[in-house]
Design goal:
This protein has a single domain, classed as MFS general substrate transporter like domains (Growth Hormone, Chain: A), CATH 1.20.1250. It is an all-alpha fold. It is built from 22 helices and no strands. The protein starts with 11 loop residues before the first helix and ends in a 15-residue tail after the last helix. It is found in: Cell membrane.
Length: 446
């Protein structure tokens, strides 16, 4: 099958395609983060407890994480354009249904639809980065993708909060759902799957792609990327999507405006730290997983200071903790760069899907456990939780940090052995500061 190149790689068309796909990712993050500022309102609207409130986001992330492998298979089969269009359709329908939901079960079903659509977006964008940009460009573009996507979190923390106040629940969510219709048109007109006339991975039968997931999963580099993602991402996700706002407002006594401002400032800090992380990753490819672990240690130290502080921690310390937590977002993006070193291009959809499962699995488990601990500490609903209740509940994060770091170190060792055995010279190449590019053989897992 021909793979004739018909478009330049890393040039103007690549940037246009990336920009459109990135806009879709920004919208996905916005929809995903919308409960971060609407959680207290949702608890009142549907008359639910903390555990039930967590169900919204947990179910959304369960659907998101559970769909990563099948979406990865479909992505390698049908391409990014089709998956972006499908994801936009599901997110738009889900958010519109959420706007008009009058009962808790209906609202949960709507959020599940949002999660299903969201599941198709990020790895589709990352696959476009992989095929449309040069190897030297890919790490920075990947980081910028993750960081720019967080503009959606800013929009959820600021503008959505304003819309909820001015327009009310139904009109605010209905208005935001309409953005998806505009992006459907943009994706249909501008996004192309590949700079080549024919991409041979699309011709592979769906059954063969599904069976090959076992091979991709058996590759220790895929698992190293997944555990790096698992360890570094969940704290920022839990804080921004659900429990950060209640902790700040009800636990620490911050104003609503102050809490929203901090959530937006976290995104700005993630941009700064992400640029530094991308530079380090590009210069020190052999030490990428150690960079991730170093960022996680900084998060653990900052959280420990806040949780052990007698009473409410001072504002400056909370800001330091929030910024350290926000740095976990860029650190999680390193997981995709790790997987790229161990898997050929035609397996990137499956590899990235498996990597993406890590952080979101940790996030949903942490969110659920925090809700359970809060309800066990004080059963009187959202209004009854004290600062000590929040501190106890948020301590469950240490379980996931510890387990994740151990697994990252374990698969770092296995990954090094894997490269030394199958790709002699790759280790020395990375130690010298040059990235290792997989030669394209895709049968070395398991």
């Amino acid at each position: 099958m021909t793979t004739e190149q018909v478009h330049d790689i890393g040039k103007r068309r690549a940037w246009v395609i990336w920009a459109v796909a990135l806009a879709v990712y920004v919208l996905a993050v916005f929809h995903r983060s919308s409960l971060g500022v609407a959680g207290i309102i949702a608890a009142e609207r549907f008359h639910i407890s903390a555990t039930s409130l967590a169900t919204f986001t947990v179910l959304q992330l369960v659907v998101y994480a559970g769909m990563q492998v099948p979406v990865g298979v479909l992505l390698d089969r049908f391409g990014s354009r089709a998956m972006l269009l499908g994801g936009l359709g599901l997110m738009t329908a889900g958010q519109l249904a959420f706007a008009f939901a009058g009962s808790f079960p209906a609202a949960v079903a709507a959020r599940a639809a949002v999660g299903a659509g969201d599941a198709m977006i990020f790895i589709s964008v990352i696959r476009l980065v992989t095929v449309w940009f040069l190897v030297r460009q890919a790490p920075m573009v990947t980081q910028v993708t993750g960081l720019t996507g967080q503009l959606g979190a800013i929009a959820a923390a600021g503008p959505l909060s304003y819309l909820l106040h001015e327009l009310g629940w139904t009109r605010a969510f209905a208005t935001t759902s309409s953005i998806g219709l505009v992006l459907v048109v943009a994706v249909a007109l501008l996004v192309k799957d590949s700079p080549y006339r024919s991409d041979e991975v699309v011709a592979i039968k769906l059954r063969a792609l599904a069976l090959s997931v076992r091979t991709v999963w058996g590759n220790p580099g895929t698992r190293l990327g997944m555990w790096s993602h698992f360890t570094s991402q969940f704290s920022a996700t839990v804080f921004a999507l659900l429990w950060g706002y209640p902790f700040l407002v009800q636990g620490l006594g911050w104003s609503s405006g102050g809490a929203s401002t901090l959530l937006m400032a976290m995104t700005a800090w993630a941009v700064v730290s992400g640029l530094v992380t991308a530079r380090l990753v590009a210069r020190l490819p052999f030490y990428r997983s150690w960079i991730v672990i170093g960022i996680v240690i900084a998060m653990v130290v900052a959280w420990t200071a806040v949780l052990l502080w007698p009473g409410a921690a001072p504002h400056w310390l909370v800001v330091v903790m929030a910024f350290a937590t926000a740095s976990g977002g860029p650190a999680a993006m390193v997981g995709f760069d790790l997987a790229r070193s161990f898997n050929p291009t035609h397996e990137t959809g499956r590899a990235n899907g498996l990597v993406n499962i890590g952080g979101f699995t940790a996030s949903l488990l942490t969110m659920a456990l925090i809700g359970v601990v809060l309800d066990l500490s004080a059963s009187g609903g959202m209004g009854s939780y004290s600062l000590s209740d929040f501190k106890l509940a948020l301590s469950v994060q240490y379980l996931f940090w510890a387990f994740g770091v151990l697994q990252t170190l374990r698969y770092r060792r296995r990954g090094i052995d894997h490269l030394a055995r199958l790709h002699p010279g790759a280790i020395d190449q990375m130690k010298s500061g040059r990235p290792f590019v997989h030669p394209g053989i895709g049968t070395e897992g398991v």
